[in-house]
Amino acid sequence: MDDSIPSGLLKEWKIGDNKLKKFTSVEDVNDIDALVKKALAYKVNPLKDATLGINKRIGLLFLNPSLRTRLSTQIAARNLGMEAIVFNVDKEGWQLEFEDGVVMSGNTSEHIKDAGPVLGSYFDILCIRTFPQLVNREDDYSELFINAFVRYCGRPVISLESATLHPLQSLTDVTTITEILQAKPLGRKPKIVLTWAPHIKPLPQCVANSFSQWMNAWKGTGEFVIAHPENYQLAEQFTKGATITTNQDEALKDADFVYVKNWSTYEDYGKIYENDPAWMLSLDKLKTTNDARVMHCLPVRRNVELSDDVLDSSHSIVTQEAANRVWAAQAVISELLK
Ligand code: CP
C-alpha cells in the first residue's frame, strides 16, 4: 500500500444490523482529493495491490446495458486479485421486486428481501446498475432500488449508476480533470461548465446530477456553471452552489473544461421539451473558451450531442476519461476491501 495516501476515504454507515461502507454518492466519501490521488497512483502502477482482494469475489449486477462500467469495474477488481462475476439480471435473472409489502401477483418473481441476503452470501462486495424508470419522479428520486439492495444484501455496495446518480463516473471525471491540471497547471482553479445537449431519447439526469454534486463538493472547482434550455433545471439538491444559466454562449466564455450531457426534464418529469441542434457543442462554440477540454461520459450520439469536429479534435478528452474509469473503480474497491 502507498503510505502517502491515507486510508478510510469512505464513510462507514449503520445499515440494518451492520456497519458498512458503500459508494453510492459523494456523500459516502470522506476525502475526494485523496481518493483521486489513489486512483492516479493505480494508473501509474495498476498491480501495486495485486493481492489485496485475493480469495474475494465481487458481483456486478446489471439491470441495464453498459460498456465502460462493466468492463472497467471487472478490470479494476482483477487488478486487486478479486474474482469478478457479472450477472445481467435483466436478461438472465428473476425479475426483482424492490417495494416492501406488495402482493407479488404481477411480473416480479423474487423480492430483494430474499435475493439480497443470498447475493450477500456469495460475494464480498456487490455492485448494481439500476436506471430510473423516468415515469414517476418520486419513485426514482427515492432511490428505492439501490437503497433496498444496500439494506438487504449486507455487503458493501458500489453504485454502477442508480436512478439519480453515477458516482463512479463522477470520481473518474474529477480524476481526469486533476490529471489534466497536474500535467498543465493553470495557476488557478478551473472554470468548469456542464452544458445540456440535444438527444433523440429522454435520458436520465444521473450523470448531470452526479457531476454537479461532485463539482459542488470538490475543493478543486473554481467556477462551476450549468447551462441548459428553459425548463431543463436539475434537482436543486445536486446543483445548489452552481451558477445556472440558459445562455450557453455566456457559460462557455473562458471555460477550461466543458462537460457535455443530455438529460430529460426534471420538473415535468422525464420529457423532451427541446431538441434545438443549436445546443450541440461544435468547434465554433469553443472559440471563446480557454482552449477548453471537452468531456462526455459516453456513449455519445455524434453530431447530435457533440459534433465530429469536436470529438475528433485535441479538445476532446473522452477516451482518456473513459480509460480512467478503471482507476477510479480500483480506488473505490480497494477502500471497500479494507
Ligand atoms: N459512462 C458509462 O457509464 O458508460 P456505460 O454506460 O457504457 O457503462
UniProtKB/TrEMBL annotation:
<feature type="domain" description="Aspartate/ornithine carbamoyltransferase Asp/Orn-binding">
    <location>
        <begin position="224"/>
        <end position="334"/>
    </location>
</feature>
<dbReference type="InterPro" id="IPR006131">
    <property type="entry name" value="Asp_carbamoyltransf_Asp/Orn-bd"/>
</dbReference>
<dbReference type="GO" id="GO:0016597">
    <property type="term" value="F:amino acid binding"/>
</dbReference>
<protein>
    <recommendedName>
        <fullName>N-succinylornithine carbamoyltransferase</fullName>
        <ecNumber>2.1.3.11</ecNumber>
    </recommendedName>
</protein>
<dbReference type="Pfam" id="PF00185">
    <property type="entry name" value="OTCace"/>
</dbReference>
<dbReference type="GO" id="GO:0004585">
    <property type="term" value="F:ornithine carbamoyltransferase activity"/>
</dbReference>
<feature type="binding site">
    <location>
        <position position="94"/>
    </location>
    <ligand>
        <name>carbamoyl phosphate</name>
    </ligand>
</feature>
<comment type="subunit">
    <text>Homotrimer.</text>
</comment>
<feature type="binding site" description="in other chain">
    <location>
        <begin position="297"/>
        <end position="298"/>
    </location>
    <ligand>
        <name>carbamoyl phosphate</name>
    </ligand>
</feature>
<dbReference type="InterPro" id="IPR036901">
    <property type="entry name" value="Asp/Orn_carbamoylTrfase_sf"/>
</dbReference>
<feature type="binding site">
    <location>
        <position position="161"/>
    </location>
    <ligand>
        <name>N(2)-succinyl-L-ornithine</name>
    </ligand>
</feature>
<dbReference type="InterPro" id="IPR043696">
    <property type="entry name" value="ArgF'-like"/>
</dbReference>
<comment type="pathway">
    <text>Amino-acid biosynthesis; L-arginine biosynthesis.</text>
</comment>
<dbReference type="GO" id="GO:0042450">
    <property type="term" value="P:L-arginine biosynthetic process via ornithine"/>
</dbReference>
<comment type="function">
    <text>Catalyzes the transfer of the carbamoyl group from carbamoyl phosphate to the delta-amino group of N(2)-succinyl-L-ornithine to produce N(2)-succinyl-L-citrulline. Is essential for arginine biosynthesis.</text>
</comment>
<feature type="binding site">
    <location>
        <position position="301"/>
    </location>
    <ligand>
        <name>N(2)-succinyl-L-ornithine</name>
    </ligand>
</feature>
<dbReference type="Pfam" id="PF02729">
    <property type="entry name" value="OTCace_N"/>
</dbReference>
<feature type="binding site" description="in other chain">
    <location>
        <position position="129"/>
    </location>
    <ligand>
        <name>carbamoyl phosphate</name>
    </ligand>
</feature>
<keyword id="KW-0808">Transferase</keyword>
<dbReference type="InterPro" id="IPR006132">
    <property type="entry name" value="Asp/Orn_carbamoyltranf_P-bd"/>
</dbReference>
<feature type="binding site">
    <location>
        <position position="261"/>
    </location>
    <ligand>
        <name>N(2)-succinyl-L-ornithine</name>
    </ligand>
</feature>
<dbReference type="GO" id="GO:0019240">
    <property type="term" value="P:citrulline biosynthetic process"/>
</dbReference>
<feature type="binding site" description="in other chain">
    <location>
        <begin position="166"/>
        <end position="169"/>
    </location>
    <ligand>
        <name>carbamoyl phosphate</name>
    </ligand>
</feature>
<feature type="binding site" description="in other chain">
    <location>
        <begin position="66"/>
        <end position="69"/>
    </location>
    <ligand>
        <name>carbamoyl phosphate</name>
    </ligand>
</feature>
<feature type="binding site" description="in other chain">
    <location>
        <position position="325"/>
    </location>
    <ligand>
        <name>carbamoyl phosphate</name>
    </ligand>
</feature>
<keyword id="KW-0055">Arginine biosynthesis</keyword>
<feature type="domain" description="Aspartate/ornithine carbamoyltransferase carbamoyl-P binding">
    <location>
        <begin position="21"/>
        <end position="179"/>
    </location>
</feature>
<feature type="binding site">
    <location>
        <position position="199"/>
    </location>
    <ligand>
        <name>N(2)-succinyl-L-ornithine</name>
    </ligand>
</feature>
<keyword id="KW-0028">Amino-acid biosynthesis</keyword>
<dbReference type="InterPro" id="IPR006130">
    <property type="entry name" value="Asp/Orn_carbamoylTrfase"/>
</dbReference>
<comment type="similarity">
    <text>Belongs to the aspartate/ornithine carbamoyltransferase superfamily. SOTCase family.</text>
</comment>
